[in-house]
Amino acid sequence: MHLKKHFIIFVLSICFVPPSFANIVQYRFYANQVYDVQRSPTFPLANQPFTLTSFHEPYRANVTSYKLNNGEYIQLFFVNGICKDGLVGINRYNDRGDLLETVQARGHIYGLTREGFLHDNDNNIGTFISTHHLPSNIENLTYLAPKGPEAENCTALENY
């Protein structure tokens, strides 16, 4: 009986231990988390206020806007399937998980915090992605990024 009790505790501990990290490409972001914004400064600076205003529908690389409707979401992906030089793209999916389009084929992440982060496609088309559902009437958001103005590295992206 004593061994059986320890075995059950061991099995339960394996089943319910949360993973030690999550990878940024595993998250789904929905309509009230994905925005084109005006930003000041243009890229976050370490421990300085980074202010976002004028929250609008995000843009594709060809500078046309898109809207996430009815459970659609975006998900980041590592360019060429692995994190190399921090290159990350953005795909758009429907509510069934079917790929609709690649809206940004490549870019970098800046200002990675618990509040969110900025994806910039290296052509200055920036998409702010919030980790929280933001109110539809949001006018501005300011947060402090621990790093900047350089892009986030693979270690930070793989352990977000």
How would you summarize this macromolecular structure in one to three sentences?
With 160 residues, this protein is mainly beta.
**Average of per-residue pLDDT values:** 88
Q: State the secondary-structure class.
A: mainly beta
How many whole angstroms does the radius of gyration measure? Answer: 18 Å
Instruction: Show unreliable segments.
Output: 1-21
Q: Percent of residues in beta strands?
A: 25-35%
**Main β sheet profile:** 6 strands, antiparallel
What is the tally of helical segments?
2
Strand order of the largest sheet: 7-8-9-2-3-10
Q: What share of residues is helical?
A: 10-25%
Order of helices and strands: HEEEEEEEEEEH
First-residue to last-residue Cα separation: 42 Å
Find the count of extended strands (DSSP E, 2+ residues). 10
What overall geometry do the principal axes of the alpha carbons give? globular
Total domain modules: 1
Would you mind describing this structure in some detail?
- The structure is a single chain.
- This protein has 160 residues and is mostly beta strands.
- The chain is globular.
- It is 12% helix and 33% strand.
- It has two helices and ten strands.
- Mean pLDDT is 88; it is low at 1-21.
